């Protein structure tokens, strides 16, 4: 298997609005990030992924870009950004930027022009369609509720927006648009960045003719699903992007891809095909959703997780490469989700970190994960800022008949603002995130959970993550070893083995809050030699092949 820096790296995601505010306006900013780079370099991460900092009216917190070459005023200036890049490189880290090119903001000059008239030069930069029988062109639904089409009075056509109506979809069928995007990518790469995380990049090719999606029971519109995910020209577009841009730089690329399966992911990440290096799958993040989608809550079955993770681990082995993540700015906090953020807060956060970092792939840490930040429960819907939450609440409770409490519960469990509350730096007001009034409320537990405390406590989640990252540098098997699931049917223990040449690692994790006996199965050929990490003080003298795992215990043995 080819060795590359991005396989050996650990990535840390920064959501700038909520990371650190340097000027007291309540909004995180670029200088605020630069101030905290030593914290990140002490943690040991290699790559920083910065969520969008481009000019934006912030309908979707920067994922609606109005100028791809400019920095949002609230975040600072291009000089601040250049200083950030320098300081990152100076510390031996790398920077990848968010590339949001499935859609732009409706305030982008291209869209402002496009909507002026049907023969405007920029008209075909977007996707326009006439109505069908006085209604929307088809039944596709926006990810943020309602139809994916918006009527434009002036030109009497609809435009497509798979997200909010202020995020019109770009028309990748138009070669001129593609060229603009490639030029923009080169501009940033020439400034010295080290790669891109690509927003919903598998949505850029839509099925021609815009047919209706199949109706699902109980829904007004369906998402159109397969009709815009992994569409007919997607591989062609990505190969073109690779040829025109990426191949000329030593960079890392990861495509965010809702609805991608292993078979498709193999194509996207197969080195020979020259598309991307990694994708973000959503499959493991959908395991606690029912048939009604994200807001339809369902407990996680550990055997489902095993089946899913194993499929990806073995499916991409030797052909492509996995990205490994539990959290990002769109997902609730993992310790609250698959762990226990009360009684076993520290244990379960460490166990989940161990489980993820020992898999094959590049691990991503989302800001605050390394100190065990948790989900939040705000009493009022008005305290939530996220457009997805607000639109969903409006559609279900205000327009529809759904029960307020039930919908709030789903927001507490799944809402994106769980991840977007300000980073908790210390026990000062607003958790030390800002000297002003934060743009979104701070999680009230900041006095107990914060970075200052975590750094000072050598048993903290933070120091445990540091150790996980360090182990990756010491043991190539963590990066390159292959993966075998053991105990496939156990409903509490997830155990797997990694193998590289003569070396083996056995990862044993307890996903439950009970004491659970573990016995190494006889058909597993493994002789443990050394416990390289564990989240409890373990007596090494006991028999490492047969013992009782404590609640959320994790152990990793190296052996042969
Ligand atoms: C995925 C991003 O991660 C999310 O935050 C955003 O709302 C949508 N794409 C639209 O850009």
TrEMBL record:
Residue ranges of coiled coil: none
EC number in record: 3.2.1.10
Organism: Oceanobacillus longus
Gene3D superfamilies: Glycosidases (3.20.20.80), Golgi alpha-mannosidase II (2.60.40.1180), Oligo-1,6-glucosidase, Domain 2 (3.90.400.10)
PANTHER family: ALPHA-AMYLASE FAMILY MEMBER (PTHR10357), OLIGO-1,6-GLUCOSIDASE 1 (PTHR10357:SF184)
Domain of life: Bacteria
This protein's UniProt keywords: Glycosidase, Hydrolase
Family: Belongs to the glycosyl hydrolase 13 family.
InterPro entries hit by this protein: GH (IPR017853), GH13_cat_dom (IPR006047), Glyco_hydro_b (IPR013780), Malt_amylase-like_C (IPR032091), O16G_dom_2 (IPR045857)
One Pfam family, short name: Alpha-amylase
Glycosyl hydrolase family 13 catalytic domain mapped to chain residues: 13-420
Protein name: oligo-1,6-glucosidase
Catalytic activity: Hydrolysis of (1->6)-alpha-D-glucosidic linkages in some oligosaccharides produced from starch and glycogen by alpha-amylase, and in isomaltose
EC category name: hydrolase
